[in-house]
Amino acid sequence: ESHDNRHVIQSTFDHLLFLVQEVWGYRPCLWKMVLVGMGAVCSGGLLLLLLYWLPEWGVKGTCTHTSLRDARTLLLRTTDEFRQWFRAKVHVMLAPGRKPFDSFNLQSTAQLPNGDGDHGVSAEEHHGKFAQRQPAQIHYFTHHSTKYYWNDETHNFELYKLFFGENEIAVRVPSLFKLLIKEVLNPFYIFQLFSVILWSAEDYYYYATAIVFMSVISIATSLYTIKKQYVMLHDMVAAHSVVRVSVCRGNKDIEEAMSTELVPGDVVIIPVNGMIMPCDAVLIHGTCIVNESMLTGESVPVTKTSLPSLGEEAARRYNMEEHKRYTLFCGTHVIQTRFYTGELVKAVVVRTGFSTEKGHLVRSILYPKPTDFKLYRDAYLFLLCLVGVAGIGFIYTIVLSIMNKVPAKTIIIESLDIITITVPPALPAAMTAGIVYAQRRLKRVGIFCISPQRINMCGQLNLVCFDKTGTLTEDGLDLWGIQRIEDGSFSPPESEAAKESLVNSAFVACMATCHSLTKIEGELSGDPLDLKMFSATGWILEEPTEEETALHNPIMPTVVRPPKHAIPEASQSNPLTQNMSCEIGIVRQFPFSSALQRMSVVVRRLGERHMDAYLKGAPEIVANLCKQHTVPQSFTETLETYTRQGFRVIALAHRQLESKLSWHKVQSLSRDLIETNMEFLGLIIMQNKIKQETAGVLCELRKANIRTLMVTGDNMLTAISVARDCGMVRAHEKVIIADAVPPKDFQSASITWHYTENPLTHPCFSRLYHFAVSGRAFAVITEHFPHLVQKLVLRATVFARMAPDQKTQLVEVLQSIDYTVGMCGDGANDCGALKRAHSGISLSELEASVASPFTSSTSNISCVPNLIREGRAALITSFCVFKFMALYSIIQYLSVTLLYSILSNLGDFQFLFIDIAIILIIAFTMSLNPAWKDLVWRRPPSSLISGPLLCSVLTQILTCLVFQVLAFLLVRQQSWYEIWTPQSDACNVSSSSLSHSQNTTSPHDHKNIRNYENTTLFYVSSFQYLAVAIVFSKGKPFRQPIYKNCKTYSVLLIVSVMYIVCVPHDWRITLVVIVIVNAAVSFMLEVHFRDITPYKLSVTDLFFRLENCDLHVANDRWGSSFLSWLFCQRNKAPSVRYMHLALELQDDSDWPPRPSTVTYDVDPGGCQQTSLHKE
């Protein structure tokens, strides 16, 4: 145990959700609890609130350090960048046996059938075996729906799947009372409560009532939304979560049980008509057709086969990720099963409850990762600055009041009132309004958002990764042609595969059988590529019924045959020959694996004694599994010809199996034994057309200085061709393929750099290059050349043959060099990357889109620029609203401070009018400006704490201060000025009755509210609110201009008719002049500061414009030039890593590597070195 009693816990099977966490042990301390109780009483409960908001203080303030073994309370802290604190209570449970962790050895008693161990040992047998032992106390705690148990041997809390509990994903809907308490204890509402009490003490009942009314509405709306989300999630999870299942435990007969009673090791029977899986289970007998759209977003049903019991794969330990093609996941729908005579479809339960894949998905919603965005961090710092300003006013008020001998009660109330004025109470609501409006606008264009805070992040996207198939290109494939092998070489391409002459060929037989198609309600269903390939043959697929299967020997569950009219005449004349040669039964299927990039089947032609194996997959993979003499010498050149033109190429292979192989033996063979020594059959050439919108969208993103990448599982040259066709790689730019191989036979790992075109020698064009990296090369470079990874991804545009986890890894690498990454995809392979990116955009509307923050109802990438436009508009709106709310507080603070100097203040209705009629209307209407129609190459700023933005705010504060002081001093210099009394009449005789009624008041105005200074400052400050709202409402190039938002101008009409006491007509004209000059000065200052912010950002992006020989950079205005010099932007190093790295590589003469060079991994002493050798 470490010296500071600190340990690290980590979820081994929940690695997708839970991060490594540090943990400290504590036990209650009586004297600390007494002190805290006394402090809570003395502070009126504020100390308890502080300890509630800061759990680490709460634990340390009431407990003392102790060992984890003796702890009763635990303090947890995540080790990620957020460093979140959590408090957990340690519970005790009784377990049978002295050392339960040693006794319950699941590895020996419930081994999964890779070793075909006893998978039927039940929890009841365990209980009986150890029933004679005395129960032992087990300490555990629960965190984020996961239980951690204390292990005496490792002296740490660990995850044990021994104590399973009920198989239930319990989403408990909190009561309204609990939600209300949690919401009300928010620091914002506590501050509101403090403010209301203070205003009530000042007799500001109307204003206090209005704030209470708004707070109640806000709380009610928030509670309704939260409750509704909990109920929706509960209903989604509860649907089909508790079902009755057939279970086989031990050597007992099959029994009925509730799904909540399932534990790992149980064997469940999958019914013929399918079911919704209540747990994660691995198939040990039979085959299932499964719809996994709830988890993956892929609507195409997939085939799950039984776990191999023999061969190399069976010898390996079961791993959820490696063996997912044999695993039925919780929440997925088993549509139908494939079974054989006397055999039931069985699966062994491996995970239950929140440990399942569906449990991971639910927890990712219940406990989302915090949104890390610089704007929000800066907002808190800015509020702290406002608190500092409030502190100055607090001290000023106390000193001034003491000098004027003000009563102590008044001093306390007025000094505290300054704090409530300086910190804007409506800030959170105003900031949220802009995001809500953006969310509504996105919904109107078919983009749905489940994480609204990420909308602002979309405004900072500077790189977007795209999947290829179904995203950049059409989802469906068209068969362009086939190219068969004849006499060891390629025959000429053929456009049709359904010709009579090819019916009996192995090539067409492979096309007709090597797929995972199935019939669901009479319709063929499966992968689009398989559907297109099978339909091209014209053959018919027939699946036997349950009765037919029971009557026949276990020979073939599925049969394919050509239509009668397609059978050659010679065969038609003899029915026996027809049946013997044409009907093919699929005996066993090895489903497609994205890791292996292939699939295969074992078939038997009716009437033949031997079986055949057919294989299809990526050409490079298939060629390596074939006998070399069967692969044409022109294979590489032919493949390259097609892939350069953007075709998708699939290779086919065949092998005749030994006649001694029986049906039962085939069922137990591993695919490695089948998929070897194949004979190459030829190529299928599929055409994958680029979507109509793709090129235009990518061009728009490039003009907006947003980098685009292609991340696909397709062939490298096909991907490069598509990248050129859609404009991702332009005609004059070269592509460098980084081909890496791992170490082998005492040879170190190496990277060969292939140039797809001859390098250009023009000094400008020499820098126009893109890297293309395959999934295999990416894995090798990540492991053996880590120092090159960031250099590669900086200029890599095409990533081909990427596995799903590699896509996620790539997103993380891009984020590590400070890119704000977007990911756009449509299928199962993209789910991890969609969740990991700053902004994931799913083109699939299925249930798995819950993994993505954004979902588009349009199936093309036109949603990406729409999302970025709205993100930029929302981000700029957030800046505008924040700056306006800060200025509103400061303007009111200045007015009240000046009035305090004459022992006056604003009145109840004045505060009410300012906050309700002006501020709320402006704050909520200035967010209505929609996004600008075009994407510009500049991005909005991401930080509030920057020189130009701070100067913008400070200059506006100084401007407002100058004009308020000017008006305050000028009114006291007027000839008609006097200390105002109810009998004062500074107006002329023609004053209206309305004005006269406003001058009439009771003789006792103990707050001294009605006076000329108050009227003047109130009038000037009211227009200052409107002026700063207009100048801060930034329009082009990110939002529509302010003049299109007519709702804001309604405030101007209200303000123009307001005054408190009657003043002469000339002074009203003077006030109008002061207001106009104030607005003009504010506007002129903001225009110059507005120009500097984009310039600051353009400095960091200028390099990439130069890289693309785009020298059309707009000239700076003199204000921008001066301010950039003032803030030392000319010589400042880039703040983002990718720009810093780009500038370094610009001066590196050895980068990019020269054509046909090889980089070796030389690692004799543990360090990486690079050597270049000319081939």
From TrEMBL:
Database matches in CDD domains: P-type_ATPase_cation (cd07542)
Alphabetical list of SUPFAM superfamilies matching this protein: Calcium ATPase, transduction domain A, Calcium ATPase, transmembrane domain M, HAD-like, Metal cation-transporting ATPase, ATP-binding domain N
GO molecular function: ABC-type putrescine transporter activity; ATP binding; ATP hydrolysis activity; ATPase-coupled monoatomic cation transmembrane transporter activity; metal ion binding; P-type ion transporter activity
Enzymatic reactions: putrescine(out) + ATP + H2O = putrescine(in) + ADP + phosphate + H(+)
Domain P-type ATPase A residues, every copy: 244-365
Subcellular location: Early endosome membrane; Late endosome membrane; Recycling endosome membrane
GO cellular component: early endosome membrane; late endosome membrane; recycling endosome membrane
GO BP terms: intracellular calcium ion homeostasis
Main location, first listed in the record: membrane
Residue stretches spanning the membrane: 33-54, 205-226, 379-398, 418-438, 879-903, 909-928, 949-971, 1016-1033, 1045-1061, 1067-1087
EC number: 7.6.2.16
Span of domain P5B-type ATPase N-terminal: 22-151
Membrane topology summary: Multi-pass membrane protein
Residues spanning the signal sequence: none
Keywords, sorted A to Z: ATP-binding, Endosome, Magnesium, Membrane, Metal-binding, Nucleotide-binding, Phosphoprotein, Translocase, Transmembrane, Transmembrane helix
Function description: ATP-driven pump involved in endocytosis-dependent polyamine transport. Uses ATP as an energy source to transfer polyamine precursor putrescine from the endosomal compartment to the cytosol.
Protein name: Polyamine-transporting ATPase 13A3
Natural source organism: Lates calcarifer (Barramundi)
